[in-house]
Amino acid sequence: MPVAAPLLETRLSGLAPHRQGKVRDIFDLGDSLVMVATDRISAFDYVLGSGIPDKGKVLTQLSAFWFGKTGTIVPNHVLTTDVREYPAAMQEHAEILAGRSMLVRKTNPVPIECVARGYLSGSGWKEYQASGAVCGIALPNDLRESDRLPQPIFTPATKATTGHDVNVSEAEAGRLVGPALVERLRVLTLELYEFGAAHAEACGIILADTKFEFGLTDTGEVILIDEVLTPDSSRYWPKDQYVPGGPQPSFDKQYVRDYLEQIRWNKQPPVPSLPDDVVMRTREKYLEAYRRLTGKELD
Ligand SMILES: Nc1ncnc2c1ncn2[C@@H]1O[C@H](COP(=O)(O)OP(=O)(O)OP(=O)(O)O)[C@@H](O)[C@H]1O
Ligand SMILES: [Mg+2]
């Protein structure tokens, strides 16, 4: 299959997106949104200078796969992924939108990142080393980096407008959005994590941790939004290489991280671009994650 040029920015006949996240371009249609996953890739909170061809398709199609599987746990924002069902004005852009976009219900996003962790890594490991706890949850005192936790934990974070998200206790999250809502989000987050982790495990992949976002509809219903259980929102580790006691190789971004280490990027602008071989190997890992988790080829 020839590799298409990466989509770095979505322009629909000159119409710019209403909003751009690090990865998604969002077109606001009133009650609904068209969310386009581009091929942008971020590392250390910066969007890098190179895109990964087809990465946006993997994110969208993998999210669609998980939204389909988790609908019995919680309803979600997906209206359709079929461009032929989009509003007429959007259909003429099928070439760009097909396979990498979704028409979704517009919600009021709950301003809390709902993180579930089954393993001790990343900011969880840092917090544990400093305090023996993560988000106020005390843990056994003999854990190593990347160890499996006695049971998965809910570790909410606030969505910082700039830079890193900040881990908060469940009580602090409750003060922000209400304790009853946080309690509900905790239950849903852990149930979704358990479901995803069991499925991934059967595919030879460890789901170390993951982040969900929820939104409130205008009738006050809580629904799952954004992306679900993708390599960008999750820490996936190859199970056959798992050795606790240190950091694990990342399923998808290891080549990118190794490269950024190698050039000793100071994690400040200007952002680096990636050499072709790093781009192509990273693309292959995203495709592999898709294939292994869904058992299908990308559309
Ligand atoms: N159904 C929805 N209704 C409203 N907002 C949504 C919905 N689904 C996703 N979003 C928002 O759209 C954005 C997705 O874009 P993207 O993932 O690129 O952003 P990000 O870089 O993760 O975060 P930021 O928005 O802070 O830049 C997120 O801000 C997310 O909260
Ligand atoms: Mg995002």
What's a concise summary of this model?
This protein has about 300 residues and is of the alpha+beta class.
Structural class: alpha+beta
Secondary structure: number of strands: 17
Q: What would you call the shape?
A: globular
Helical residue percent band: 25-40%
The radius of gyration computed from the alpha-carbon positions, rounded to a whole number of angstroms, is 19 Å
Catalogue the ligands: adenosine-5'-triphosphate, magnesium ion
Arithmetic mean pLDDT: 96
Number of helices: 8
Distance N to C terminus: 12 Å
Most strands sheet: 8 strands, antiparallel
Helices and strands, in N-to-C order? EEEEEHEHHEEEHEEEEEHHEEEHH
Task: Determine the strand fraction and express it as a percent band.
Answer: 25-35%
Q: Assembly state here?
A: single chain
Poorly predicted runs are none
Could you explain how this protein is built, in words?
The protein is of the alpha+beta class. It is built from 8 helices and 17 strands. The protein has helices at 55-70, 88-91, 94-97, 122-131, 170-177, 179-202, 254-262, 276-294, and strands at residues 19-20, 24-28, 32-37, 40-43, 46-51, 78-80, 101-105, 108-109, 112-119, 133-134, 137-138, 148-154, 157-158, 166-167, 205-216, 222-225, 234-238. Helix 7 (254-262) runs antiparallel to helix 8. The chain is globular, with a radius of gyration of 19 Å. The protein starts with 18 loop residues before the first strand and ends in a 5-residue tail after the last helix. The structure holds adenosine-5'-triphosphate (ATP) and magnesium ion. Magnesium ion binds at residues 21, 23, 226.
